[in-house]
Amino acid sequence: MAQNNFEIITNNPLVLGKLRETHYVIYHDISYEEILKEVRDRIHEGHRLLSHPLSGSVKPKETPYKSIIITTGKGMEPDIESLELIENAIEACGKFAFKADLYGAGVYKDFQLIDWTLLKSALESAEI
Asked: What does the DSSP 8-state code read for residue 59?
């Protein structure tokens, strides 16, 4: 496995399948909002955000999938900017009704692909 200075937290099985051999991926079968909270907890431990928690044009709770890049290393104190971003994302998530349960099975594959595409773009920046 390649040594990176970041880790990926995701609930997207497509991301896990594509990156588990080359990146440090933390996969949880949990909701979009729970992924945000998992990232928030890690920021409190000293990790920093490397990708925006609300990237893309799909609103929170319209998709069930989210992948976020954070630093592997921890700082001595929580990063205030990262905390503000993740807390705002959690708050924004609470403003939307869950809609992903209204879609047919094939749509979930599309949402996985959208999340993967957004993550792939962020990875290209993180790996420079």
From this structure: P
Tokens of 113: 């692909």
pTM: 0.91
CA distances from residue 105 to 28, 54, 62, 101 in whole angstroms, order as listed: 20, 24, 14, 9
Listed in sequence order, the residues at least 6 apart from 39 whose beta carbon sits closer than 8 Å to its beta carbon are 9, 49, 53, 68, 70, 86
CB atoms within 10 A of CB 65: 24
Three-state DSSP state, 37 = helix
Per-domain residue ranges of the chain = 6-126
Q: Give the containing element (helix H, strand E) for 60.
A: none
- Do the Cβ atoms of 69 and 4 come closer than 8 Å? no
pLDDT tens digits, one per residue of 21-38: 999 999 999 999 999 999
